[in-house]
Design a protein that fits this description.
By secondary structure, the chain is an alpha+beta fold. Helix content is 39%, strand content 23%. The chain contains nine helices and twelve strands. The strands form three sheets. A five-stranded antiparallel beta sheet has the order 1-2-9-4-7. It is elongated, with a radius of gyration of 20 Å. The protein starts with a strand and ends with a helix.
């Protein structure tokens, strides 16, 4: 069962103030949001945040941990649509409409999150239109990410999707790619589902890339040894 994190009301604005959505708000505004029922929740692994068909009355900001958003197939399988980590939000759709959730959300690890009631968010929007713009900017960024995912599923091979995942942190960098390490925050099976691949295929591609000397696998750490060569490997 979820438990309230032991904290004083004075600690909550500190968590909010570091998030871009709340930057620029006065101490008074942050205090009003806290006073309307905001709280920190520590959730165990496997805790459902909401299920498809349910309403969600809170905006949630992940402080630590990982959450998956997923759909369930009629045969019982699941498709991971999004992985949400520290600093990211979930539940925005409930702010703008009263429609039930289309998907499910569940913690993948022990997770600490900041839960802010819908009424507190809507009240702040009325006080500060700039806050509404930051909220929309955050939602728009996630939409762009999902659009990129759809493009990847439709137009890229499985190998290209795996390589794209490994180089994702440097995708927008204009500098020459440097060797780095990708630490998998969740299981390989979850990441495979996120990439619309089977776990077996995902593992097979990783072994292939390791055999080629492009990466080195150490449990959940994947060391990218030759990023430039890895990026061009899918063109061969």
């Amino acid at each position: 069962m979820p438990t309230a994190h032991r904290s004083t009301a004075s600690e909550l604005p500190r968590y909010m103030a570091v998030h871009p959505m709340f930057q620029g708000l006065s101490e008074a505004d942050l205090g009003l949001i806290v006073d309307q029922g905001s709280s920190l929740m520590r959730l165990p692994r496997g805790q459902a945040l909401f299920s498809s068909g349910e309403t969600c009355e809170h905006l949630m900001i992940i402080i630590t941990g990982q959450v998956k958003v997923f759909a369930l197939a009629t045969h019982g399988g699941e498709k991971v649509l999004e992985l949400i980590g520290p600093g990211q939000t979930i539940g925005e759709s409930s702010i703008f409409n009263d429609q039930p959730q289309a998907f499910n959300a569940q913690t993948l690890t022990e997770t600490l999150l900041l839960r802010i009631p819908k009424r507190a968010i809507t009240a702040q929007i009325k006080r500060d239109p700039g806050f509404a713009l930051r909220l929309l900017a955050d939602a728009s960024q996630r939409i762009r990410g999902l659009q990129h995912d759809v493009e990847s599923y439709c137009l890229r091979s499985g190998l290209q999707r795996v390589v794209g995942f490994l180089l994702e942190d440097q995708r927008h960098s204009h500098e020459r790619r440097a060797p780095h390490t990708v630490s998998l925050p969740v299981s390989k099976a979850t990441i495979a589902s996120r990439l619309s691949l089977t776990p077996e295929y995902f593992s097979r591609v990783l072994r292939e890339l390791e055999d080629e000397g492009l990466i080195q696998i150490s449990r959940r750490d994947i060391h990218i040894l030759q990023p430039e060569e890895l990026a061009s490997y899918t063109l061969q």
